[in-house]
Design goal:
single chain; mainly alpha; 61% helix; 0% strand
Length: 90
């Protein structure tokens, strides 16, 4: 890391803080409202043999009103897409 910092110091302004770590958020909620909206709609309408449809529908409705549950819904959506891709049955 020392070599990378020394190289970065040549290119970056002196005020740049290369030592501080900083996390970043993923705009999952915004993606579900925009480009992934059709995926969420498909999941809630068609259902899945591995999810309780009533619970899934409730989660999608909660997501539409707030960011709460976005990460959990992302995980469920990823699992369902994996299940469909590899034709795994319940």
């Amino acid at each position: 890391k020392i070599i990378l910092r020394q190289l970065a110091a040549r290119w970056l302004p002196p005020a740049f803080d290369s030592h501080r770590k900083q996390g970043f958020g993923i705009p999952i909620h915004a993606w579900f409202q925009g480009p992934w909206k059709s995926l969420v709609d498909d999941l809630s309408e068609s259902g899945s043999p591995i999810f309780d449809k009533a619970a899934l529908t409730a989660m999608v409705q909660t997501l539409r009103s707030s960011e709460r549950g976005s990460h959990r819904l992302f995980q469920l959506l990823a699992l369902e897409l994996w299940r469909r891709e590899y034709r795994v049955s319940a």
